[in-house]
C-alpha cells in the first residue's frame, strides 16, 4: 500500500505554496512541479481580479455616498425637531451607553447634530462630527474625531482640542471619581470624552466603528428601543392573560360536565324508585284481587 507516501507529498506541496521562493530548492516530480506552476499562474490571475474588484467597489461606494448625502442631510434637519434625539439614541445603544458617565449624558443633551463623513477616496479614512448647542461644559460648537491611514499604512487618529469651561472638564471628573474611591492607583476606565481624546490604538477603536457603521446608518432604531420593548411586553402580557382565561373556561366547562353527570345519576335513581313503586302497586292490586275472590266464595256459601 502506498498510503504512507501520499501525506509526505502533500506536506511538500503545502510547504511550497506557503514559502513561494523555496520551490526551486525542493525536489518535486515533474507532474507536481507542473501543477504547482499552473496553480501559481491561476493565483496571480485571481489576485489581479481581486485588485480590480476593489477598485470597482470603491467607485460604486463613492457614487452611492454622493447619492446618500442629501438624504442624510434631510434626516438631520428632521431630527432637529425632536428634543434629545441623539442623547436618547446613545443611551439606548448597549456599547455606547456602557462608556457614558452621568455627567457626560447631561452634556450630550446639548448634542444637536451628528455627522459621519468618509473621505472622498473612502479607503484613506473618515471623520465623525459632533455638533453642540451652547452649553455649560465647553466652548466648542463642533467636536471632530478623524481616522486616517498614515503614509506607512498604519491607522492614526486625531481630535479637536476641547476648550473646557472652568471646573467642567469631564475627562478629569472621571479620574477624580476613581481617586475618591480610595484606590491606590487610578484604574483606566474608558468614558465617552476619554474615548474622544484617546489616540493610543486607532486600529482597535470599537466605539468609532460602532458610531460609523451602526449608529449613523440608522439611529432611529436606537431612539425607539424603549417603545418597542414596552409594546412587546404589553403584547406578551395580553397573550398570557388570554391563555389564563382560556384555562379557566376549560375548568368551568369540566365542572359543568361533572354537575350534569351527577344530576344524571340522580335521575337514574329516581327512575329506579318509580319502577320499584310500580312493582309494589302491582303486588297490591294482586292482593286485592285475592281478597275479592275470597269474598265471592263466602257469598256463595
Core attributes:
disordered C terminus, alpha+beta, four-stranded antiparallel β-sheet, disordered N terminus, 4 strands, 301 residues, single chain, 10% strand, 10 helices
Describe the structure in your own words:
By secondary structure, the protein is α+β, with helices and mostly antiparallel strands. The chain is built from 10 helices and 4 strands, in the order αααααββββααααα. It has helices at residues 5-19, 30-79, 85-92, 94-97, 102-107, 170-180, 192-197, 206-215, 220-223, 225-300, and strands spanning 111-118, 125-132, 142-149, 155-159. It has a 4-stranded antiparallel beta sheet with strand order 1-2-3-4. Strand 1 (111-118) and strand 2 (125-132) form a beta hairpin. The longest helix is centred in the C-terminal third of the chain and has 76 residues, at 225-300. The relative contact order is 0.06. Residues 1-23, 178-187, 249-253 and 271-301 have low confidence and may be disordered.
Write the layout of secondary structure elements.
Blueprint: H1 5-19, H2 30-79, H3 85-92, H4 94-97, H5 102-107, E1 111-118, E2 125-132, E3 142-149, E4 155-159, H6 170-180, H7 192-197, H8 206-215, H9 220-223, H10 225-300
Average pLDDT score: 76
Q: How many distinct beta strands? A: 4
Q: Fraction of residues in helices?
A: 55-70%
What sort of overall outline do the alpha carbons produce when their principal axes are compared? elongated
Quickly count the helices: 10
Amino acid at each position: 500500500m502506498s498510503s504512507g507516501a501520499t501525506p509526505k507529498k502533500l506536506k511538500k506541496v503545502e510547504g511550497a505554496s506557503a514559502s513561494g521562493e523555496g520551490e526551486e530548492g525542493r525536489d518535486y516530480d515533474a507532474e507536481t512541479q507542473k501543477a504547482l506552476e499552473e496553480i501559481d499562474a491561476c493565483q496571480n490571475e485571481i489576485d489581479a481580479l481581486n485588485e480590480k474588484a476593489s477598485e470597482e467597489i470603491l467607485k460604486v461606494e463613492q457614487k452611492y455616498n454622493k447619492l446618500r448625502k442629501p438624504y442624510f442631510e434631510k434626516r438631520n434637519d428632521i431630527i432637529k425637531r425632536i428634543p434629545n434625539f441623539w442623547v436618547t439614541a446613545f443611551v439606548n445603544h448597549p456599547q455606547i451607553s456602557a462608556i457614558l458617565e452621568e455627567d457626560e449624558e447631561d452634556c450630550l443633551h446639548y448634542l444637536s447634530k451628528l455627522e459621519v463623513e468618509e473621505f472622498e477616496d473612502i479607503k484613506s479614512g473618515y471623520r465623525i462630527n459632533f455638533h453642540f448647542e451652547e452649553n455649560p461644559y465647553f466652548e466648542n460648537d463642533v467636536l471632530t474625531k478623524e481616522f486616517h491611514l498614515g503614509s506607512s499604512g498604519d491607522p492614526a487618529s486625531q481630535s479637536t482640542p476641547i476648550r473646557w469651561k472652568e471646573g467642567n472638564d469631564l475627562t478629569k471628573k472621571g479620574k477624580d471619581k476613581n481617586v475618591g474611591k480610595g484606590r491606590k492607583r487610578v484604574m483606566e476606565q474608558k468614558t465617552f470624552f476619554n474615548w474622544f481624546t484617546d489616540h493610543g490604538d486607532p486600529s482597535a477603536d470599537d466605539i468609532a466603528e460602532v458610531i460609523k457603521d451602526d449608529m449613523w446608518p440608522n439611529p432611529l432604531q436606537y431612539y425607539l428601543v424603549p417603545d418597542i420593548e414596552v409594546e412587546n411586553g404589553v403584547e406578551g402580557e395580553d397573550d398570557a392573560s388570554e391563555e389564563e382565561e382560556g384555562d379557566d373556561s376549560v375548568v368551568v366547562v369540566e365542572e359543568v360536565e361533572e354537575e350534569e353527570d351527577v344530576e344524571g345519576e340522580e335521575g337514574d335513581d329516581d327512575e329506579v324508585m318509580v319502577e320499584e313503586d310500580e312493582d309494589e302497586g302491582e303486588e297490591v292490586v294482586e292482593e286485592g284481587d285475592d281478597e275479592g275472590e275470597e269474598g265471592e266464595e263466602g257469598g256463595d256459601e
